[in-house]
What we know:
Elements: H1 3-7, E1 22-27, E2 34-39, E3 46-48, E4 54-61, E5 66-73, E6 76-82, E7 89-92, E8 99-104, E9 110-115, E10 122-127, E11 132-135, E12 143-148, E13 154-162, E14 164-171, E15 178-179, E16 187-192, E17 199-203, E18 210-214, E19 222-223, E20 233-239, E21 245-251, E22 256-262, E23 269-270, E24 278-283, E25 290-296, E26 299-305, E27 313-314, E28 324-329, H2 335-340, E29 353-356, E30 359-362
Antiparallel strand pairs: 1-2, 1-28, 2-3, 4-5, 5-6, 6-7, 8-9, 9-10, 10-11, 12-13, 13-14, 14-15, 16-17, 17-18, 18-19, 20-21, 21-22, 22-23, 24-25, 25-26, 26-27, 29-30
Amino acid sequence: MSxxxxxxxxxxxxxxxxxxxxxxxLSGDDEAPxxxxxxxxxxxxxxxxxxxxRAYAYGFDPASEQLLLVLTENGIDQxxxxxPQSDRSxxxxxxxxxxxxxxxxxxxxxxxxxxxxxxxxxxxxxxxxSDRLERLTENPEGNFDARxxxxxxxxxxxxxxxxxxxxxxxxxxxxxQRRLTRHPGDSxxxxxxxxxRYIAFISGRDGxxxxxxxxxxxxxxxxxxxxxAAGIEVTSFQFHPAAPRLVFSARSQNAHxxxxxDVEGGSPRALSSANARDSEPVWSPSGDGLAFTVTEGRRSDxxxxxxxxxxxxxxxTRSGPGGWRPRWIVEKGSRGHEALTxxxxxxxxxxxxxxxxxxxxxx
Length: 363
């Protein structure tokens, strides 16, 4: 077990968590939320894109300093790019049907997303240099949750083309599609480790939704959340930006807790108390802090903590509308940005289920 994981079962540290970058989150009514942004220490908090019907932050490209968004325009979810320092945004690859789940390619030149523009749901790429739209899949049953590999050469995704949702991998141009999983229980929300050696995903194949990993060639499938607690259901997860480690949230009948687990060995370690309502954890860009959502009654707020569960700090104010669905981005000149110039960038939006007052929905 690594030293970092061992800390999770020792006394939590009291040192304040890292404060580089910015945190984007949603606040207010979950049917018409407001996108907000603050520094990682909770200061300089303000609303963004106040004229949008709804706006969700999915990713950020440090090189071009563009925020990747889903905006609701005339009732239709569209892919858009925004300036995180202003309210300016522009819709790209506009469609008459919804588009979801966008992700920047590792080089920031291409956007991968799913859309209902020509079918129930297929996968597309949009080249930001040439403004060219390419359709990657053509299956009437549906294709979802697409993610670029860290080197940008491959894409993993979920597809229901054979009935249940299984995982697939294909080349970045849509060729060479091959099936990774074959199980009646759905497998969804795949995401790559930063070194490209693993793909993590959520599946209910053995009962409640659990966290699994598999190799990109379909071998070495393992459950990672089996020792966390009996009867839990995994709701979200994210890979560490540089290490083979995951943070995930899971709910039981009486709580919603956050855990950390090493892909290559060791049991999950709880970062939350046994009766907590903690969910939606995301790593800081350099991997030495976590942002997450705390729900108390019908109110949710954004907090940060260290990766050992210590130094918990509320970012959203008690007098404000609260917050949920945090996304932690990196800025030029920060330690996180320096780290990302040395390692592949896996992105920040690898799941789209959001928890709000005990209810789940698409985000």
